[in-house]
Amino acid sequence: MSDTLLDVQDLRVTFGRGGREVAAVDGVSYTVYAGQTLAIVGESGSGKTVGCRAVMGLLPPSAAVTGSARFQGVQLIGLTDDQLREHRGANVAMVFQDPARSLNPTMRIGTQIAEAVRTHRRLSKAQAKEQAVELLRLVHMPLPERRCEEYPHQLSGGMRQRVMIAIALACRPRLLIADEATTALDVTTQAQIMELLLELQAELGMALMLISHDLGLAASYADEVIVMYAGRIVEQAPAARLFEQVRMPYTQALFEAIPRLERPAHTPLPVIGGRPPDASSRLQGCSFAPRCRRAADDCRAAAPPLAEHEPGHRWACWHPVPGGPDAD
Amino acid sequence: MAVAEELRPGAALTRRVVSSPGARLAGRRLLAAIPVLWGVTFLTFVVMNQLPGDAAQELLGANATPAEVHQLEVQLHLNEPFWVRYGTWFGGLFHGDLGTSLASGQNVTAILGQRLPVTAELLIYAFAASIVFAVGLAVLAARKPNGLADRFSMVVSMIGLSVAPYVLALVLVYVFAVRLHWFPAIGYTSLTQDPAANLRSLTLPAAAIAFPLFAVYTRLLRADIVEQMQREDYIVTARAKGVPPWRVLVRHALPNSLFGLITLVALNLGALVGAVAIIEPIFSLPGVGSILISSINNHDVPVVEGIVVVFAVVVVLANLLADVLYATLDPRIRYERSAS
Amino acid sequence: MSAPLPELLTPAPAQAARPGGRAEGRARALNLRIWLPAGFLIVLFCACFFWPLVYPVPSPVGGSILNSGLPPLSPGHIFGTDPVGNDIFSRILHGGQVSFEVGLSVTAIGLVLGGALGVTAAYWGGATDTIISRVLDVLIAFPALVLALVIAEGLGPSELHVIWALAVFSIPAFGRIARGATLTLREQTFILAARLSGTRGSRIILRHIIPNIMPQLLTFSLLGIGVVMILEGALSFLGLGIPLPEPSWGSMIAQGQQTISASPDLVLIPSAFLFATVVALNVLGDALRERWA
User: Fold this and answer.
1) Smallest Cβ distance to A21: which of C16, C17, C20?
2) What does the pLDDT average to over A249-265?
3) Among B162, B213, B232, B262, the residue to mutate for chain C (most C Cβ within 10 A)
4) What phi-psi label fits residue C56: left (phi over 0), alpha (psi between -120 and 50 degrees) or beta?
């Protein structure tokens, strides 16, 4: 069994907004193993991004984080900023969604990458610069020396994301969190970046956490998939398993919403009616009940617990989809 | 040909600079500023001209006979029609001749030459101090919004915005000159004579001018830095790298927050002629401010115009400098190459 | 005089995110920052205008030289007397009247005329906008105090002339703000909807634009009154404002300058009043901007 890299238990994140408490993450538990690729999928507002930023301590001061998140046994929740900084970049690194805004527009690429290196290692400026060039080569950036002298706005979106990845890899972290890393890119570039991430993962032996709203992406590239809704985990299974035996109606609806070539032309895309619940008003019963086809009275009365109903496959639903391949 | 081009990198660089977007922007700004410059000088001339009475009357006093006044008027060319006088003055401008003072008969250029360095030094001192302290306090305040340093900065800013420079000057004189004897209350020693005494004689007046400026700058800069720190994604990236908070503040947020400050500093420059006109007489400094008011009283048009022209030119140059600084700080303005 | 560009005059301090539950504390603090200065200003206003009517106060001018140079807390003269024998307290009150009169009139003129110009320029756009904007630019580029000095010098010292002189830049300052605010507002959908439904321009301006830019203009007015008071003080300080022996806080400060070592309170007392008034106006203006943002 691979060793446990990150063990999250009952993570809760609440924001105080105008006197009211808003629970963005409502009791989330999962484990990431070394070398594993874990995908967390959910709509906006499901809490997937907030959860990861909470682990790294990157949330604004108005956020209250409780629960446990152990990285290789070390408890991260509750550490001071100074203590967390030792982990950031060195053990756990993040790649963000919008590389255009995530890079300092007035600082050269090379300097930004070198900064990531020098934050955790004692190197001279020249040595760090060499490291930066090496890192750019690692992410298959053409003409890396030239790129180092350029500014972010001079690069295309895909190239900027490669730079972000280079920055994240600067200190060879054990865990890389890709937070919607490909969302802002076109489909071709998306595939390239995903391939790059997988290649680097294999080469460097890192664990990879993919945060996305794209279930198709997650199912294609991840070992294990977690589906989040309204701040809670609603289903978790190995990717292949999830494809074949989806249980939670929400996950099923997500699968159905993926455009398919096999469907006849002009078939309306099945969408999930309604909207995710407002984070400040959590319902008593299952959060998905208002939008669920299979909802019944017991769903509205009490929220179903997340439990491992089948080996390796957890879900939280009173009326899961019956076993068998998902309907086409 | 190609080889020759490579052998003259200086020429290529010059060409790139001159045709760069920065230079073109500067050129356009310069052209646009000229009508404003002209408007300002013209307006001054018109307004001064409208003042009842004239220089001759002022110079000779109330007891002068009309004949004497008329004689002096002819001597000073005051009897010529408005457009002739303006035209003469404007024409002289292109020769670098700003005319002659009606009151003292001295060459205006000479007067300015004597007095401008004093005012210039005072203003540079005031600006430097206000900017240095503003950046320092803003960074300290932005480190912990609503913390101790931040509240302190807000209180200090509020005081600085609410205090009148002349009031501040007098209070400073009372506290530091009369009571503590740390600085002289009046008087000026030139830089070449005695640098230490020179700085001492300029410190109180510079402080009186600098404090309100410092208040506005701190407020603006602090707001901009806090906004960068809270709203911008690249700050999150920097923190995620593990960069220490001070470095995030100073190396990432601060350079991206300076644009508003630069704009404000450049814009403020013109208004300072008023501050100088009040502060210099209080401290008996031999700068242009001291003679501005007496010149207005004397209807000494050439001197007033001379001062106004100098300040207007300084404002235009300052705005140009601001544009250059924008380009230096923000590579997006500097390079016209879009994403490849 | 340092009169920075109107809209950059006092940028609203960015409120940092705070843990929830302190919202009530913040709201209470905001209320304090609104009512405390407002109360002070109202009390001062009433004192300046109504006190002399209710309680007999020595005349601010024509004091007897026998009374000259009395220190504060002397019997009959709370703030003492000046070198000519005038009662300082009375001069403060009457000087305050001047400050309020000038401050309010100049701001009112600027608000109405400048606001009208700015809104017109922004709403109609095109050539109107260009012309008005250029004129406003030149007026704003002009060194504020110089123009005021020249006008005051030309017209002769009097309170009315001071008001006219200062109104010359109150108008472009308000014009700029009003124009900026209107430009932003003009692109909003509800204005577009009104125009598409055929509402006349003047009606749109009156019913939609003006009510929406009012909060911004009002907070700017409060800050502007403070600036005007300081400028009036400056003019009087230079002898070009309110003619002596009529009291003005500015001229009192100027007079006090001569005896600053011997009797500093001649400078400090009017300075304190001027400072307190402007601080109150600034804090109130800031707090209202936060409340109405």
Assistant:
1) C20
2) 79
3) B162
4) beta
Q: Is the pTM higher than 0.90?
A: no
Nearest-Cα distance to chain B for A154, in Å, is 5
Whether residue C261 lies within 8 A of chain B, CB to CB, comes out as yes
Q: List, for residues C48-87, the tens digit of each pLDDT value.
A: 998 888 776 767 666 666 667 777 777 777 788 877 778 8
Question: Which of B23-37, B120-134, C101-115, C259-273 bottoms out in mean pLDDT, i.e. has the lowest?
Answer: B23-37
Contact (CB, 8 A) for A218 and A241: no
Buried b (16+ CB within 10 A) or exposed e, B144-178: ebbeebbeebbebbbbbbbbbbbbbbbbbbbebbe
Is the Cβ–Cβ distance between A106 and B235 less than 8 Å? Answer: no
Buried b (16+ CB within 10 A) or exposed e, B98-124: bbbbbbeeebbbebbeebbebbebbbe
Give the β-pairing of A63-71 and A74-75: antiparallel
Are C291 and C32 a contacting pair, CB within 8 Å?
A: no
Residue C106 backbone zone (phi > 0: left; psi -120 to 50: alpha; other: beta): alpha
Cβ contact, residue pair A105, B340, below 8 Å: no
- Say if strands A20-33 and A63-71 run parallel, antiparallel, or are unpaired: unpaired
What tokens were used for C72? 């504060």
Against chain B, the chains showing at least 3 CB pairs within 8 Å are A, C
Chain C interface disruption, residue of B148, B163, B170, B211, most C CBs within 10 A: B170
Quote the tokens at residue C174.
């308000």
Residues 6-45 of C with CB under 8 A from A: 16-21, 23-24
DSSP secondary structure code for residue A89 in this structure? T
